[in-house]
């Protein structure tokens, strides 16, 4: 079940314009995870845009691990809040939350497509040695999307707002040490 709402905000907190800022929200009940709230804040004047996903249930640091083995696995749902860190050790890729980090609800393919975009940009803008590394990673991602390469995907969130939703997904609590490492990053 979904509930949607719009919050009118009189003044844009970024540019100060009146009547141009809006927050759209959607609450969704996701099986095996609980209620999530997606929000999208936009300003039609300064074009500010920010999306976020919040878990309305428990708030315990969590770690999910999922092994991608087939094309079918591309459909597995991924909830990544702005505090979630995604790791694909086999690719040497880590997506850490930065200050402008956005939250989103997607699937495994969506995560891989985001990494593809970054790598494609790196290929266009890097000198040859770095370019070759990015090209190799890009090839591996293509194989993963086609279900021809196995890879592990890890999603860690010190606030428990992120998840990989599948019955084969392994979930455990983060240790105090892991939480400290995730929250002390620059
Ligand atoms: Zn604005």
Structure description:
It is a single chain. Helix 1 packs antiparallel against helix 2 (128-145). The chain has a five-stranded antiparallel β-sheet with strand order 8-7-10-5-12, with no helix packed on it. 24% of the residues lie in helices and 41% in strands. The chain has helices spanning 108-125, 128-145, 176-183, and strands at 2-11, 18-30, 34-43, 49-55, 62-68, 77-80, 85-88, 93-95, 104-107, 151-157, 163-165, 170-173. It has three helices and twelve strands. It is globular, with a radius of gyration of 18 Å. The protein has 186 residues and is of the alpha+beta class. The chain folds into two domains: 1-57, N-terminal domain of TfIIb, CATH 2.20.25; 60-186, Sandwich (Jelly Rolls), CATH 2.60.120.1040. The structure holds zinc ion. Zinc ion is lined by residues 12, 14-15, 17, 20-21, 43, 45-46, 48.
Highlighted features:
alpha+beta; Jelly Rolls; 4-stranded antiparallel sheet; globular; binds zinc ion
Topology of helices and strands:
Elements: E1 2-11, E2 18-30, E3 34-43, E4 49-55, E5 62-68, E6 77-80, E7 85-88, E8 93-95, E9 104-107, H1 108-125, H2 128-145, E10 151-157, E11 163-165, E12 170-173, H3 176-183
Antiparallel strand pairs: 1-2, 2-3, 3-4, 5-10, 5-12, 6-9, 6-11, 7-8, 7-10
The protein binds zinc ion.
């Amino acid at each position: 079940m979904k509930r949607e709402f719009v919050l009118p905000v009189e003044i844009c907190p970024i540019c100060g314009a009146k009547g141009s800022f809006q927050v759209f929200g959607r609450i969704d009940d996701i099986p095996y995870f609980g209620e999530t709230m997606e929000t999208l804040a936009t300003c039609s004047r300064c074009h500010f845009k920010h999306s976020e996903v919040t878990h309305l249930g428990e708030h315990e640091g969590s770690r999910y691990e999922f092994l991608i083995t087939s094309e079918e696995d591309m459909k597995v749902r991924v909830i990544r809040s702005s505090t979630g860190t995604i790791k694909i050790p086999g690719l040497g890729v880590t997506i850490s939350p930065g200050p402008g980090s956005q939250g989103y609800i997607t699937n495994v393919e969506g995560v891989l497509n985001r990494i593809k975009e970054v790598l494609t940009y790196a290929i266009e803008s890097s000198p040859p040695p770095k370019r070759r590394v990015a090209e190799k990673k890009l090839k591996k991602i293509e194989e993963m999307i086609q279900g021809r390469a196995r890879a592990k995907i890890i999603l860690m969130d010190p606030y428990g707002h992120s998840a990989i939703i599948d019955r084969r997904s392994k979930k455990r609590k983060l240790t105090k040490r892991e939480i400290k490492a995730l929250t002390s990053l620059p």
